[in-house]
Design brief:
Helices cover 17% and strands 27% of the residues. It has 284 residues and is of the alpha+beta class.
């Protein structure tokens, strides 16, 4: 989900060039019908923003989308790409003032730049949650080594920007290598044929898990075996030999929540024939 904020001096709606606000088009043609001269800031929430979306916004709209990170438990945004700082496409930004966020190893020690670890917060931020309703033991389990453990995996660069890897329970262990679904999805999205991608770990007797991708294609591209092979090789060149999807299914659309989060658990449940569980937040 992306919010476009009109400049304070002009809060009127941004109208299409032909006056029709409901143009059923996509890609780069739709924005040409609109004026964005009153937009001063664009921010994204819901699903982590892949680098391609940031590059697209800058190229097509002349606007840089600002990603951020927070949870229901945190009460408000904790890490963000500030309007006053450069945006690194694919990064969630830096901790906001008053928040101490870090990427730590299994002992709670800060990881070296570029090394994946647990994304944690120093307890005591103003909007910190106080408990899980009737689940006090679960609440206590989220705090250890002097940190609140968010359940997310991330890495931090030399400039202090934090990069989302994936949920701890989403990370794929393939032949001893840990692969974040989001990084594979981001690589797939860079291919000109791919509109959206969702990635899961599928049990495998030799590798523990393999990377499996579900891909929806842009108009004009056919779901062929040749394209599956091309996409796998495309990801392999951008990431690593162990991170490419060994299986790819083409689907019309990905299951998402109303806020735009890809529901990987539904993809996995359908793949493995498991109960779907709660689908009340599923996008209509």
């Amino acid at each position: 989900m992306v919010f476009l904020h009109p400049a304070p001096q002009d809060r009127d709606l941004v109208h299409g060039a032909d006056g029709d606000p409901n143009v059923d088009e996509g890609g780069e043609e739709l924005p040409k019908k609109y004026s964005f001269k009153t937009i001063f800031h664009a921010a994204s929430v819901g699903e982590p923003l892949n680098p391609e979306a940031v590059v697209w916004g800058h190229r097509v709209l002349g606007l840089v989308f600002h990603d951020n990170w927070w949870q229901t438990e945190t009460g408000c945004i904790q890490v963000a790409n500030y309007a006053t700082q450069d945006v690194k496409p694919g990064s969630m930004g830096r901790p906001i003032p008053g928040t101490e966020a870090e990427v730590v190893d299994k002992d709670g020690k800060p990881c070296a730049p570029g090394v994946e670890g647990d994304l944690v917060l120093k307890p005591g931020w103003p909007s910190m949650f106080r408990t899980y309703w009737r689940r006090s033991e679960l609440y206590k389990s989220r705090f250890k080594n002097g940190w609140y453990y968010s359940g997310d995996r991330a890495k931090k660069d030399l400039d202090g920007y934090i990069w989302f890897i994936g949920r701890d329970d989403d990370v794929i262990n393939t032949a001893g290598h840990l692969v974040g679904p989001f990084e594979v999805e981001s690589a797939l999205i860079e291919h000109p044929a791919v509109a959206e991608a969702g990635v899961i770990g599928k049990p495998d007797p030799e590798r523990m898990e393999i990377v499996k991708a579900f891909v929806s294609l842009k108009k004009g591209f056919a779901p062929t075996d040749a394209l599956k092979k091309e996409l796998s090789e495309f990801v392999k060149r951008r990431l690593a030999a162990h991170a490419y999807p060994r299986e790819i299914d083409f689907i019309e659309s990905l299951p998402k929540t109303r806020s735009g989060k890809i529901m990987r658990r539904l993809l996995k449940a359908k793949e493995l024939g498991l109960p779907l569980g709660d689908t009340s937040t599923l996008e209509d």
